[in-house]
Specification:
This protein is α/β, with parallel strands linked by helices and 567 residues long. It has 3 domains: 182 residues, Rossmann fold; 166 residues, TPP-binding domain (Rossmann fold), CATH 3.40.50; 180 residues, Thiamin diphosphate (ThDP)-binding fold, Pyr/PP domains (Rossmann fold, 3-Layer(aba) Sandwich), CATH 3.40.50. It contains 21 helices and 21 strands. Strands 11-10-9-12-13-14-15 form a 7-stranded mixed β-sheet, with helices on both faces. The chain has a 6-stranded parallel β-sheet with strand order 3-2-4-5-7-6, sandwiched between helices. A hairpin with a 2-residue loop joins β14 and β15. α9 packs parallel to α11. The relative contact order is 0.10.
C-alpha cells in the first residue's frame, strides 16, 4: 500500500517514541488528521484550543522526551505560538505541524480566509523561525519525506521545537515510503575526543587544586541527557550539591550530598553562603537570567574559579572548549577528579536546616494557610508522583517541598507564562500514564487563563490532582508592583468540575477552607488513580512566601531601572 504524506509523518512520530499527539481541528488540517488516524499506534488527544494544545505538547515532551502538536493554518498556529516559544525557551523538542493553504491558491492572486488579507502566504513560517530549530514548508509530495525528516532531526538534535507546514491538499498525496533514519539526540552527536580529553584534564586539575569545590546543577541537564552523569560526578567528588530552581528533582533530594536550590537571597537555607564560600563553583547545564539572579543582585563570585559546562562548551577562568557533549564530558570528569568533601562537611556543621521553622500540623478546624497547604501537598508526594508548579507564588511554595526519592518537579522558569501549567500537566499525565500521580499547584489567576483543559483531564481519565490556590488576585504581581489591575472576578473553582463533567465525567471538585478539609480532600486525591480531583484551597490574599517578596522586589526594580547614560 502506498504511503501518503500524512502517514509518512505519523510513521516518523511513532519512530521517535511518541504514542500520542495533541490537536485542534480546523478546515485546513482535517485531511491531515484523517491520515494520522490511520496509524493505530498513535492516539489523538483533542484539546480545547490551540494554545492549550501547544502547552499540553510541551508538558508531554517533559515526560516523554519529544511531542507533537497538529494545528490549522494562521488562526490556529498563531494561537499556539506562545506555547511553541515556551518549548523553545525550556529546551523541549516539539514537532509542531501546521496545515497550510491549498497549493493551487498561492499563484492565483485570490484571497483566502484565515489570512491577513494578502496573497503572500509565507508569513506564518517566517513568524515561527525565531522560536524553532528548523522550519519547512511542504508544497509538493515528492519533497515531503526529506523536509519532514530534516525538521524532526533538527528538533531532536537541538532539543527545541521544529515547524512543519503541510499544504492542505497534500496530506493524502502519495510519497516515498519511510527509510531508515538516525534521529540523533544532543548527547549522540560526534565530537573531538582529543578536545574532550584536554578539557577534562584542565578542569579536573582546577577542581583538584581547589579547597572548597561545589556543584550546581542547571535546567539544561535534561535537554542534554546529563542527569545521570551529573550524579556520577557529584558522587565521585563528594562535595555539596545545589541545583537551580528549574533543575529541582534533577538531583535526588534525599541524596546525602544535596543541600538545596540556589537562587541568590531566595536560596534554600545555607546554600547561598556555601556558594559564596566556595573557591571553585562548577555549574553543569546552568541558565542565569534576571530571574535566577534575583534581578541581577547576585551572581557566582568572580573569585570562585567559576567553571561552566553548557551548550556552547566548557568555560574556565582562563580557557574555553567549544561544543563538547555535556554528558560525555561530565562522565569523563567524574572518572578523573579526586574526592573532596569540604563544602559538604562545612554545610553539615553549620546545620542550616535550623533556619526553618519546625512544622506542627494544624488542627482540623484551623483556617487554612499557605504553609499548611505546602506541607500537606508535600506529604501527598511519593516516588511515583510529579509536582507541577505554576508561575507566581506557586514557584516558591513548590521550592519549599522536600521531594521523596524518585519524585519529579516541573517548573517553567525561563519562559514563565501564566496558565502554562494546566494544559502542560495534562500533557505530562498523558505521557506518564495512570501509574504515575501528577499534582498541580496553580494560583487562581493563572488557572483562569487555561481552565478549559480540565475537561480533557476528565475526558482522558488523567491521574491528576489540581490544587487551585484561591487568594483572590495575582499575588506575584502584588509583590512586584501593587495596583488595581492585580484583581479580577472570583470563580467557584471547585464548582467548575460539575460543568466539565456534564453527562459522562466523574471528576471531583472540593473546596477546602480549613486544614482538616484539605487533609480529607488530599486523601480523596490519593485514592483516585483514574480521575481528576480539583481542590480549591482558599487562603488570604496576603498569605505569601517571604521568598516571593525577597525575590520579587529586586526583580521589579531591575525591570524599572533608569536608562543607561549613552555618553
Amino acid at each position: 500500500m502506498p504511503t501518503t504524506v500524512g502517514q509518512y509523518l505519523a510513521t516518523r512520530l511513532e519512530q521517535i517514541g511518541l504514542k500520542h499527539y495533541f490537536q485542534v481541528p480546523g478546515d485546513y488540517n482535517l485531511q491531515l488528521l484523517d491520515e494520522l488516524l490511520k496509524n493505530p499506534n498513535l492516539e489523538m488527544m483533542s484539546c480545547t484550543n490551540e494554545l492549550n494544545a501547544a502547552y499540553a505538547a510541551e508538558g508531554y515532551a517533559r515526560a516523554n522526551g519529544a511531542s507533537a502538536c497538529i494545528i490549522t493554518f494562521n488562526v490556529g498556529a498563531f494561537s499556539a505560538l506562545n506555547g511553541v516559544a515556551g518549548a523553545y525557551a525550556e529546551r523541549l523538542p516539539m514537532i509542531f505541524v501546521s496545515a497550510g493553504y491549498n497549493t493551487n491558491d498561492e499563484a492565483s492572486g485570490r484571497h483566502l480566509h484565515h489570512t491577513i488579507g494578502t496573497t503572500d502566504y509565507s508569513y506564518q513560517e517566517q513568524m515561527f523561525r525565531p522560536v524553532t530549530a528548523k522550519t519547512v514548508r511542504v508544497l509538493t509530495a515528492d519533497e515531503a519525506p526529506s523536509l519532514i525528516d530534516e525538521a524532526i532531526a533538527a528538533a531532536l538534535r537541538e532539543s527545541k521545537p521544529c515547524y512543519i507546514e503541510i499544504a492542505a491538499n497534500l496530506a493524502d498525496a502519495e510519497c516515498a515510503d519511510p527509510q531508515p533514519f538516525d534521529f540523533l539526540r544532543p548527547w549522540e552527536l560526534p565530537y573531538s575526543k582529543e578536545a574532550l580529553k584536554k578539557a577534562v584534564d584542565d578542569v579536573a586539575a582546577k577542581i583538584d587544586a581547589a579547597e572548597t569545590p561545589i556543584l550546581i546543577g542547571g535546567p539544561h541537564l535534561r535537554a542534554y541527557g546529563a542527569i545521570d552523569a551529573f550524579r556520577n560526578l557529584a558522587e565521585a567528588l563528594g562535595c555539596a550539591v545545589a541545583v537551580q530552581p528549574n533543575a529541582k528533582s534533577f538531583f535526588a533530594e534525599d541524596h546525602p550530598q544535596f543541600i538545596g536550590h540556589y537562587l541568590g537571597n531566595s536560596s534554600a537555607p545555607g546554600v547561598e553562603a556555601m556558594v559564596n564560600l566556595s573557591d571553585c563553583v562548577v555549574a553543569i547545564g546552568p541558565m542565569f537570567t534576571d530571574y535566577s539572579t534575583v534581578g541581577w543582585t547576585t551572581s557566582v563570585p568572580s573569585d570562585s574559579g567559576y567553571i561552566a559546562v553548557e551548550e556552547r562548551g566548557v568555560t574556565t577562568p582562563d580557557s574555553q572548549y567549544p561544543r563538547l557533549p555535556i554528558a560525555d564530558f561530565v562522565d569523563a570528569l567524574a572518572a578523573k577528579v579526586k574526592k573532596n568533601t569540604a563544602t559538604l562537611d562545612q554545610f553539615n556543621r553549620t546545620d542550616p536546616t535550623g533556619e526553618k521553622t519546625p512544622y506542627s500540623p494544624a488542627e482540623d478546624a484551623d483556617r487554612l494557610t499557605r504553609a499548611e497547604l505546602v506541607h500537606q501537598i508535600n506529604e501527598l508526594l511519593d516516588g511515583e508522583s510529579t509536582l507541577f508548579v505554576e508561575t507566581g507564588d506557586s514557584w516558591f511554595n513548590g521550592l519549599q517541598t522536600d521531594l521523596p526519592g524518585g519524585a519529579g518537579f516541573e517548573i517553567e522558569m525561563q519562559w514563565g507564562a501564566i496558565g502554562w501549567s494546566v494544559p502542560a500537566a495534562h500533557g505530562y499525565a498523558v505521557a506518564k500514564g495512570n501509574d504515575h500521580h501528577t499534582v498541580l499547584l496553580v494560583g487562581d489567576g493563572s488557572f483562569q487563563l487555561t481552565a478549559q483543559e480540565v475537561c480533557n483531564m476528565i475526558r482522558y481519565e488523567d491521574n491528576i490532582t489540581v490544587v487551585v490556590v484561591n487568594n483572590k488576585g495575582y499575588v506575584i504581581e502584588s509583590a512586584l508592583h501593587e495596583g488595581p489591575y492585580n484583581y479580577y472576578k472570583n470563580w467557584d473553582y471547585a464548582g467548575l468540575v460539575d460543568a466539565f463533567n456534564a453527562d459522562d465525567g466523574d471528576g471531583i471538585g472540593i473546596t477546602a477552607t480549613t486544614a482538616g478539609e484539605l487533609r480529607e480532600a488530599l486523601r480523596t486525591a490519593a485514592q483516585s488513580s483514574s480521575r481528576l480531583v480539583l481542590i480549591e484551597a482558599q487562603i488570604e490574599h496576603d498569605d505569601m512566601t517571604l521568598d516571593l517578596v525577597k525575590w520579587g522586589n529586586p526583580v521589579s526594580q531591575a525591570l524599572g531601572r533608569e536608562p543607561a547614560d549613552p555618553r
